[in-house]
Amino acid sequence: xxxxxxxxxxxxxxxxxxxxxxxxxxxxxxxxxxxxxxxxxxxxxxxxxxxxxxxxxxxxxxxxxxxxxxxxxxxxxxxxxxxxxxxxxxxxxxxxxxxxxxxxxxxxxxxxxxxxxxxxxxxxxxxxxxxxxxxxxxxxxxxxxxxxxxxxxxxxxxxxxxxxxxxxxxxxxxxxxxxxxxxxxxxxxxxxxxxxxxxxxxxxxxxxxxxxxxxxxxxxxxxxxxxxxxxxxxxxxxxxxxxxxxxxxxxxxxxxxxxxxxxxxxxxxx
Length: 270
Fold this sequence. Notes:
The protein is an alpha/beta fold. Helix 5 packs across helix 6 (176-187). It contains nine helices and nine strands. The strands form two sheets. Strands 5-6-7-3-8-9 form a six-stranded mixed beta sheet, sandwiched between helices. The chain has a three-stranded antiparallel beta sheet with strand order 2-1-4. Helices cover 37% and strands 25% of the residues. It has a single domain, classed as 3-Layer(aba) Sandwich (Rossmann fold), CATH 3.40.50.
């Protein structure tokens, strides 16, 4: 699969350079992501009156384009843990969704060896169900067998470190941090080709962050690559061997954490 990635990524006008001594697992080649959103048609009123205007073709909303990712190119290799940083609206989460295959490129392409997982099971978790039921559904959604799910159940509960008894409460009673910890614990219960984590490590105490870092190190050894979006630069510095800095949808820097984080801090004052 890695060879096919190399073949696909080298078209007539390649934008990426591959290291033949390493095993590529994700190739992002001249990627552009454009959202098409509808704005108001200039009228006022509630949702019902807005609907009536659409039905009557009066004051119809105008479509606008938001160019969220602009010509980003890079190669992620097996064993990489890549932090993705940038200010709000810089395109970080959009990039992860594109790698996961959830957003189609307007131009360019994303090639992956294996199946990317955006925190593994976001779509499978149901707030009206208990944490316990969500563990079972989440593991099954990731392709684990019922036997594998039973074997991993206690490990997931322990890793999530919820308040006593909360594993049997509906997830709509959880704080945002508890929900994020449980999602990460479920996602980390199996080996992923490419694991994409969006802010999950920013919502825990120091003990949880240490456990998460150890788990990511384990995933890097046993699987492919890990991508991590976090506003907490300490988490990025401690967890990642490489950092990509996005600025207004464009790649500003791609390099080792000390260099990129230092430049980012100097530029933004954060």
